[in-house]
Amino acid sequence: MPAFRYEAVDFGGKTHRGMVEAEGNRAARGLLRARGLTPLKVMVVSAAPAGRGAFGSRLGTQEQAIFTRQVASLLTAGLPLNDALGALADQAERTYVRELIGAIRAEVVSGQSFSGALSRHPRDFPDIYRALVSAGEHSGKLHVVLTKLADYIENRNALTQKIKLAFTYPAVVTVVAFGIVVFLLTYVVPQVVGVFTTTRQKLPTITTVMLACSDFARDWGWLAALGCIGAWWLVGRILARPGPRHRWHAWLLTAPLLGKLVRGYNTARFASTLAILTSAGVPILRALQAAGETLNNVALRENVEDAISRVREGTSLARALASANQFPPVLIHLIRSGEATGKLPEMLERAAEGEASQLERRTLFITGLLEPALILGMGLMVLMIVLAVLMPILEINQMVR
């Protein structure tokens, strides 16, 4: 039974918006009239890929986690899938989410599988999400798979949030420090030091340098800003090409400090994704392909693609991933142990947890170094500006004495 999105008014003139299920447009209007509403607009909820109706609209990561957790809880409680989706559509706060769930429910009611209905919305539900749902449907344990999937999404969101919060303070300090320095150079230094230029007094070297920097910032600062923006755009265009992007990503894996962060973040995502896929019964080749798509680093992704070819030829997963020597040795050892004991999903989960913990510690360590370094750098810049202003005053005092 298709779902219809409606806009109607009651006898008091109040506008009502929502969704209703009916056999057709005429039946939907009849249901609205039976409720005492006068329909203004009645449109079938499209099953086309989401985001077409509202520019830029899509399901957020937090909303995806909440949706998955709620569906898993309702299915575990014994509620049929179509009823669970109907309940979630009724309580959705955002219009886009309500219409998205309504469209999925309409597909399920019409006989489509849950994974098939999700495939109509690739912007909101990526390949790995649909692959897990499909595996759960085929195994008859959809609620178990959705529960693990909800845990995976929540852990991924928590890790990303921790990294963002750790770098927020250094970013704010950098922006504030840059703004203060620009203000001092473009306004304070010319106003104060300009008094001494009229006295034809020989200015100290540091004051002369600061005046030159001030003149440059006022006269050519806008051009320098445009140059930085243009350079950023040019670098982005260059890195969009496959060759430079691969070399850049390969260098990132070996960069001091930053390389461990990039490697750890991608490894944690890869291991946790592969763990949940293999535990759900997804074939190893399909699981490797889906887990590789979650990697942001092109060099690591190519390593996984090469590993897929090697595994297809009969090589063990641990040896295939270790061929390029790009993944951490701990992950390789745990995978080798999991293959030997038949507990690959458990070992992958342990590897993902270990990499996530190390990534969090490294992030806190780097940000712990950045914070005092930024404060010290800002203090030195302000000190130089203060000296550039005070030294001419001190020289005048000495001349008066």
From TrEMBL:
**Mind listing the UniProt keywords for this protein, alphabetically?**
Cell membrane, Membrane, Transmembrane, Transmembrane helix
Topology with respect to the bilayer: Multi-pass membrane protein
Domain Type II secretion system protein GspF, by residue range, is 67-190, 270-392
InterPro entries documented for this protein: GspF/PilC, T2SS_GspF, T2SS_GspF_dom, T2SS_GspF_sf
Localization per Swiss-Prot or TrEMBL: Cell membrane
Pfam families assigned to the protein according to its UniProt record, in alphabetical order: T2SSF
Which domain of life does the protein's organism represent? Answer: Bacteria
**Transmembrane region(s):** 166-189, 220-240, 369-394
Q: Which family does it belong to?
A: Belongs to the GSP F family.
Identification of the protein by name: Type II secretion system inner membrane protein GspF
Q: Which organism does this sequence originate in?
A: Cupriavidus basilensis
Classification lineage? Bacteria, Pseudomonadati, Pseudomonadota, Betaproteobacteria, Burkholderiales
